[in-house]
Amino acid sequence: MHEPNGQGRRARRGGARRRKEREMPEDRAVHLKIKRQDGPGLKSYWQDFRVPWQPHMNVISALMEIQRNPVNAAGERVTPVVWECVCLEEVCGSCTMLVDGRVRQSCSAMIDRIAPDGRTIVLEPMTKFPVVRDLVVDRSRMFDDLKRVKAWIRLDGSHELGPGPRQSQENQETAYPLSRCMTCGCCLEACPQINAASAFVGPAAVNLVRLYNLHPTGRMQAAERLDAVMGAGGVEDCGKAQNCAAVCPKEIPLVDSLAAVGRDATKRMLFGWLLK
Questions:
Q1: What is the pTM of this model?
Q2: Which of 12, 54, 69, 233 is the residue whose CA sits 20 to 30 A from 20?
Q3: Any idea what the CATH number is for the domain that residue 261 is in?
Q4: Mean pLDDT, the chain, whole residue set
């Protein structure tokens, strides 16, 4: 029998998942190995935890179980693990961490997908940002770089400006994927050019230069943004590893943005004097 739009197949898959969940033993546990640090600059250490498994559990819900009952795998009561989360639907970007060595949003890291066999899941804070405590890092570097490249639309006063300029459909289709950035830090964590010896602003800031330079109003400050990424730490410091695009949870075309801003910066360097 014909099944329009695969609805029958999806229903069968959903039924199979529900049957599998019913077959799961009630005493199944989730094993976590968490890298902890009690404060900035302090020595890090590891702790193991074992929490009860629940259907549709993600890493955040496992951390919530530890917060509710902060007892490690050895039965010792410890201080609750500290982490960040807000939206729980991969929109805010605050719950970024390393899950089994891969940077990602922990709210979308489903336990049954990353460890269906019950193996230990390793959680660590991002390594490219200073650790505040446990899995929480200070991402001020990202926001400072957004200030550096003027990643905003400048308003001429606070009076009523009326409707903004119209954007073409083509412009909107190009700009929308770029606007999905949530400053989660995944691209900086994966970028080999982001390190203690480099001033590279990173893919996120360069992507927003492209976004705001595409905007009809933002285009008026395009030269200022390009000037900000033409010097040390600018777009030329990109090593073309393309790791950023591979880990971006919003699938932003970061490589395209780096290339586009690089071309615009080169044009300004060669011909910008004509506009003075």
A1: 0.86
A2: 69
A3: 1.10.1060.10
A4: 90
Q: Which residues pair with 10 in a beta bridge?
A: none
pLDDT tens digits, 40-79: 999 999 999 999 999 999 999 999 999 999 999 999 999 9
Alpha carbons 232 and 158: distance in angstroms, whole number: 35
Q: What is the pLDDT of residues 211-266, one digit of tens each?
A: 999 999 999 999 999 999 998 999 999 999 999 999 999 999 999 999 999 999 99
Domain enclosing residue 81, as ranges = 25-137
Can you name the residues that pair with 77 across neighbouring β-strands?
71
- 80, containing H or E segment: none
Specify whether 147 is located in the same domain as 115: no
CB-neighbour burial class of residue 238 (10 A; exposed 0-12, middle 13-18, buried 19+): buried
End-to-end CA distance of the chain: 70
Residue 94 lies in a domain: yes
Do 194 and 99 share a structural domain? no
Residue matched to tokens 């099944």? 3
**pLDDT the model gives residue 19:** 54
Q: Using DSSP, state whether 189 is helix, strand or coil.
A: helix
Q: What is the pLDDT of residues 171-192, one digit of tens each?
A: 999 999 999 999 999 999 999 9
Residues with Cβ within 8 Å of 73's Cβ and at least 6 positions away in sequence, in order, are 31, 47, 48, 49, 50
Q: 51 forms bridges with which residues in the sheet?
A: 30
Residue 182 tokens, joined: 């949530």
Closest CA to 62 of 122, 137, 21, 102: 122
Task: Round to whole Å and give the CA distance between 11 and 2.
Answer: 14
In this predicted structure, the answer to whether residue 7 has a pLDDT above a threshold of 80 is no
The verdict on residue 49 lying in a domain is yes
Q: How many domains does the chain have?
A: 2
